[in-house]
Design goal:
The chain is mostly helical and about 170 residues long. It has one domain: Butyryl-CoA Dehydrogenase, subunit A, domain 3 (Up-down Bundle). The chain has eight helices and no strands. It comes from Kribbella antibiotica. One of its GO terms (biological process) is DNA-templated transcription initiation. Keywords: DNA-binding, Sigma factor, Transcription, Transcription regulation. Belongs to the sigma-70 factor family. ECF subfamily.
């Protein structure tokens, strides 16, 4: 890779590391696994840097790589769940009412979604990707993204509504 390409990649990696980590964390609920997944994704991008279309292709490829990495990690037998850390929730999930407890509830609810629904919800609502961009990242149809997102949001409403009723 040429020096100019290295500089471009370094700039891209600096810009994308936080969004990739956030996506991975929301997918897996573990900060350390999220860090590994984000780094794995950037390694994959680096290896293909010369061949990826620079406009939107490189961001889509990075998001696809991080989602794939998280799903691959989940299949590994050595994977272990980690205890909840309120500080992680405060860093990663946007303020949804000011409470770290609310953020933890969202993270726990996301973890209960099937992987496809979780990926669609995270990419659409935490990364602000369009239906079309999400379909490209996940390599599925736009209709699949719409249905998975709808089912995921319905399930989140059910889970979060149930949690709130139980707490009162």
């Amino acid at each position: 890779m040429r020096v100019r390409d290295d500089a471009e990649f370094t700039e891209f990696a600096a810009m994308m590391i936080r969004p990739l980590r956030r996506t991975a964390y929301l997918m897996c609920g573990d900060w350390h696994r999220a860090e590994d997944a984000a780094q794995d994704a950037l390694v994959k991008v680096y290896r293909r840097w010369d061949r990826i279309e620079r406009r939107e292709g490189v961001k889509s490829y990075a998001h696809r790589a991080v989602v794939t990495s998280v799903l691959d990690q989940a299949r590994k037998p050595w994977r272990r769940e980690r205890p909840d850390d309120p500080d992680e929730a405060a860093r990663v999930v946007p303020d949804i009412g000011g409470s770290v407890d609310n953020r933890l509830m969202v993270i726990k609810a996301l973890a209960q979604l099937p992987p496809g629904q979780r990926a669609c919800v995270v990419l659409r609502y935490y990364n602000d990707l369009s239906v079309e961009e999400t379909a490209v990242v996940l390599n599925v149809s736009q209709g699949n993204v719409k249905s998975q997102t709808s089912r995921g949001l319905d399930r989140l409403r059910e889970l979060l509504g149930h949690t709130e009723r139980s707490a009162s």
